Amino acid sequence: MPREDKIMLFLIRLAAAIAVSVLLFIVGYIIIQGLPTLSLRFLLSSPTDMGRGGGILPGIIGTLTLTLVSILIATPLGVGTAIFLTEYTREGMFANLVRFGTESLAGIPSIIFGLFGFLFFVIRLNMGWSILSGALTLASMILPTIVRTSEEAIRTVPDAYREISFALGASRWQTVTAIVLPTAGPGIVTGIILGLGRAVGETAAVIFTAGSSLRIPRSVLDPVRTLPVHFYILAREGISLNNAYGTAAVLLIAILLINLSAYLVMHRISIRNGGG
Fold first, then answer.
1. 220 touches 132 (CB < 8 A)
2. Domain extent for 168
């Protein structure tokens, strides 16, 4: 191997080692600081005294509910848009305009989405601080990610698959649902998981639209406090650093488990598609 290639390989390995070390240090530090606080009582009880005592059960329920509703809204819209751009339109001004719009939305700061959600969903549509307002705002945030990743995944499906399906008499919709989507499944799931990760960790947009109630929600029209918002309030106002670290540790562990589950699911889908 030439000397230049050896130097470049060494620098790449060094950069990767530094990045992994920094990541492990940050995650490890937060989890170590939060572990003494973690217990079943902490996970299954409600906060008391504005979060100085008690647990984070409303935050867990609020995070799960808000994220689930936002994914249920954004996934069909994002995947449907990707299918429309790749399977039902030709390359032209309209398709380029849609792509430009999604890429522009992906770069907008979350606080702008929060302000939009507050003015439009909370005030204009009179939804108030609620799960529905927060979910619609989060869906708007993660929609560009799902659209772009789903579109790229669908484009990786060989044209020969479509041609064979058409030759066998299948319609375009049958080809899309039976051939294209199953083949592009791992890439689409990746986009959904990326959007899920952003939704779970969002703070600014959620405060403006979903509120910060410490009560357990009973419907999508109730306000909630998610784990990131709970951590932010505890840390910013100095209410309880111990509970703040415990909340952060739960959030990190949850994200790690989500990513691990997503990897296993995509791996199984890839094996199944490859075996077929």
1. yes
2. 38-275
210: nearest Cα among 67, 29, 109: 67
- Examine residue 19 and state whether it is found in any structural domain, yes or no: no
**Of 121, 78, 123, 120, nearest in space to 101 by CA:** 78
Residue 276 pLDDT grade (very low, low, confident, very high; cuts 50, 70, 90):
very low
* 157 DSSP assignment: S
204 part of a folded domain: yes
What is the spatial distance between Cα 193 and Cα 183, in angstroms, rounded to a whole number? 17
Torsion of CA 85, 88, 93, 98, to 10 degrees: -30
Q: Classify 7 in phi/psi space as left (phi over 0), alpha (psi -120 to 50) or beta.
A: alpha
208 Cα distance to chain centroid: 18
Residue 233 lies in a domain: yes
84 within some domain: yes
Q: How many domains does the chain have?
A: 1
On whether the CB atoms of residues 17 and 3 are closer than 8 A, the answer is no
Give tens-digit pLDDT for 46-62. Answer: 888 888 888 899 999 99
Give the pair of three-digit tokens for residue 269: 């889908």
Find the CATH number of the domain harbouring 258: 1.10.3720.10
Beta strands in the chain (DSSP E): 47-48, 53-54
The token duo for 259 is 């990513």
Calpha distance 126→121 (Å, rounded): 7
Give the C-alpha separation, 140 to 147, whole Å: 11
